[in-house]
Amino acid sequence: MKSLISTLALTASLALPSAVAAKNVTLTAEMRNYRGPGAYLVLYVTDANNVYQGTVWMAGGKSKYYKHLPNWARATRGDLSQVAGITGASVGSGRKLELNIDLSDALFDAGYKLHIDTSVEDGRDVANDAVLPLTSANAGKSVRGKRYIKSFTLK
Amino acid sequence: MLRALHKYAGLSATVLVLVLALSGVALSVLPAWEKLQAPRTGGLDLTVADLVARVSNHYPGVEQIRRSPSGRITAYYFENDLAGAVVIDPATGKGLANYEKSPIIRWLTSLHRSLLLGDSGRIAAAVGAAAMLFLSISGLFLVARRMGGWRQFFARTRGPVAGRLHVEIGRFSAAGLILAASTSLFMVLNTFEILPQENTTPDFPSQVSGEIGLSPASMPALIAIPVDQLRDLSLPYANDPTDVYTISTDHGEGYIDQGTGKMLAWQPLGVWQTLNETIYMLHTGQGAWALGLLLGLMVLGVPVMVVTGVILWWTARRSRPKMPRGVVDHKADTIILVGSESGSTWGFAGTLHAALMAQGQKVHTSPMSRFDAKKHVHAKQVIMLVATYGDGTTPASANGFLDKLDTLETLPDAKLAVLGFGDRQFPAYCAYAKLVAEKAAEKGWATLTEFATVNQQSSQEFARWGTTLGDALGIDLELEHSPTPPKSHQLTLISRREYGQEVQAPTAILRFALPRSRLIDRLLGKGWKSFEAGDLLGITPQGSTVTRLYSLASGTRDGFVEICVKRHANGLCSGQLTDMNIGDSITAFIQPNPGFRPAKNKKPVILIGAGTGIGPLAGFARANTQKRPMHLFFGIRHQTSDLFYDEEMAKWQGDGHLESVNIASSRARERAYVQDILRRDAAMIAKLIKEGAQVLVCGGREMAAGVAGAMDEILAPHDLSPLTLKAQGRYVEDVY
């Protein structure tokens, strides 16, 4: 759905010098039919020690609801500069969020993980609805989500 | 100006406002419903610590506990990696039912706040709310104006049913609509983050104890908070020593250490947040279910307002005379002020307006109730066309005018001309118009032309006055006005009864079938009006242009139209009517006469009439199914000849519709007029009056004068008189 053909400006440690090799990947989060208003989703990366490294994408337009994305909010303390320029619309029940991005080779097989926190109005706030380790072996694989996410795929 | 804005705002926002109102009404019952469903926490004296312990017993995987303003507690948990949500019984911590918001409610909420269209729908809904706010406030001003000032705001309304409903429901609903609309606008501004946004969460503590395993039941911070204050509690992730309890209460938000159970950081609610929440509560009724229900009830008035508003617009559009567009009041040199009850005077005003405009005058026409001397800065003349309602009462569109005139400090420089409209058949002929002219003269308002009157909408008299006015203005003014008659309907005679041949007063009781009209015609005011006994039937006989009015002896509920007609020698209309055969038709219309009917209470009623004046009185007796005490005093010529309604009277007396029937026969051996039998029963009448009785008199002018004299004598010893009763609406006459 969403196409983001650019090199991601994550935190400084992830920023890519233009010469460094990168993989072009497609991330797909497919939502369950949870029957409710559009879900807020945030995709972010943690390192081997589970420490937040940077945000990949924020799906949801109103920043005042970002505090309902539990882990992300806690790690960033709601810092809006973390999502500047990488926000989009919330994702409806049964819909898909598709992101096309370049990820540095250095992120793979080094303990980094992709996380998704989700929140739905009148529903619950879910930390780590889906977690996908960034390993070469996981390319083309998908994981099941806990609540609002049906599956999360890396290609 | 305000009226026009109100009208166009209303018409253009009709559908939008209707959708918002209806969905809002449906949602308004939810807080009360939820309150009924929610398990009771009152009397439990529970702390959050107890609650968490109880819930964890049943749901070891609990992650979040929420308490809604209604008191419903919901727990969110994971079991075998599957998410669940249950409504909790706080007494035991057990789940009562799986929690899922009903799809219908979700749909309604989405419809109400965004018309199912997301953010653009929210903006559209906000436009609807703004329209609602404007309509409510402008409506309040218009009601005040119509009623003749804020002090008369809650006075009784008059006129056609659509207008009355619009005003009465509006008065009831306005406060609720203003609250609902203004709070919703605030909420929209907040949703779009146009209002300042406060950070409501405290900074995450830089250090935690790093211990886990303390039971929530013994955490001091959780013990300190009663469940009634809880909003949301998020539990730490299992086996994550860096995590904390996150709690939100009615007073603020904070983090609790899972090892020590102490509050690590706390942020109290800010001013904006508190304001936001109060406004949310006022709008949704969540946490204030009774207010929610009241608000819903008030908003329920909106569909009625929409329908009656459209009808009002449509009927006004149809009935207002087509007059060329005038100029705004502060630019006009000629101000026409109209005091009209049923709208016919507006027709004359339209003709005058058009004629003056054609002569190059800058004319502004408005109802007398909107008189505002300050705005008439350039006016050289003020012309008032004034009807009189009933017994000299102020006509609807002139409400409050005399008060304004009274309190006027500086008179306008413009000169004044007053023209009264009335019917010489009535004693109070042009009484209100005269009063206006007199009061203006007392104030020292310079006149342009002498006070003049127009009888029975006479086109000739109006044209003559126009010539005088034209002379005074130095222009050639020709006023040609032909009043449009009310919409007439065909009535077919279904029965007739003859009386009075023997006493040289041939009279017939004529009964016509009720004409049928379509619902849409009725709503648009084009149909056959519903009527009650005492209203008038207007009939224009063939070969004449002058309409005669007959008092109705029946109401719509009786299922027929009945009048009592005496044949006058050379009487054109009475002749045609009394000559009718069964199956013949006439055309007629209803003219309401709301001043002449029994007051709506259970007090006694004294009916006094003679001859065909019995008509409406018989109608009142027939309609008296409540069996309030009604006493009839009836003057006739002779028992055997003109005792109209003789059969019914016996029956009504037997049924309790009439408490007593007292007959005076002027040609019997003991000759008596109706005033004679009143004097005879003076004691009883005085007693009834003291009990609060109302007197209704119907008949010829002489009889009415005789009756008034007799009543004066009867009441004088009790310090009462027909006049004092008249002032209270307890002595009303229908005289011809």
What does this structure look like?
- The complex is a heterodimer of chains A (about 160) and B (about 725).
- With about 160 residues, chain A is mainly β.
- Chain A has one helix spanning about 70-75; strands spanning about 20-30, 40-45, 50-60, 85-90, 95-105, 115-120, 125-135, 140-145, 150-155.
- The longest helix of chain A has 7 residues, at about 70-75.
- Chain A has a single domain (about 10-155), classed as Immunoglobulin-like, CATH 2.60.40.
- In chain A, a hairpin with a 4-residue loop joins strand 8 and strand 9.
- Chain A is globular.
- Chain B is about 40% helix and about 20% strand.
- Chain B folds into five domains: about 1-30 and about 105-195 and about 285-315, no CATH class; about 40-90 and about 205-270, no CATH class; about 320-475, Rossmann fold; about 490-590, Translation factors (Elongation Factor Tu (Ef-tu), domain 3, Beta Barrel); about 605-735, 3-Layer(aba) Sandwich (Rossmann fold), CATH 3.40.50.
- In chain B, the strands form four sheets. An eight-stranded antiparallel sheet of chain B has the order 4-3-2-1-5-6-7-8.
- The interface of A and B includes residues 35, 62, 74, 122 and 147 of A.
Overview in brief:
Chain A is mostly beta strands.
Backbone CA Rg of chain A? 14 Å
Q: How many structural domains can be distinguished in the coordinates of chain B?
A: 5
**Quaternary structure type:** heterodimer
Q: Return the average pLDDT of chain A rounded to an integer.
A: 84
**How many DSSP H or I helices of chain B?**
23
Give the helix/strand class of chain A.
mainly beta
The total count of helices of chain A amounts to 1
- The residue ranges of chain A in which pLDDT falls below 50 over 5 or more consecutive positions are 1-18
Proportion of residues in helical segments of chain A: under 10%
- CA-based shape of chain B: elongated
Order of strands side by side in the largest beta sheet of chain A? Answer: 4-3-2-6-7
What form of chain A results from the Cα inertia axes?
A: globular
- Kindly name the structural category of chain B: alpha/beta
**How much strand of chain A?**
35-45%
Order of helices and strands of chain A: EEEHEEEEEE
CATH fold title of the largest domain in chain B: Rossmann fold
Count of spatially separate domains of chain A: 1
Radius of gyration of chain B: 36 Å
Identify the most extensive interface between protein chains.
A-B, 21 and 24 residues
Q: Major beta sheet of chain A, specifics?
A: 5 strands, mixed
Second rung of CATH, namely the architecture of the largest domain in chain B: 3-Layer(aba) Sandwich
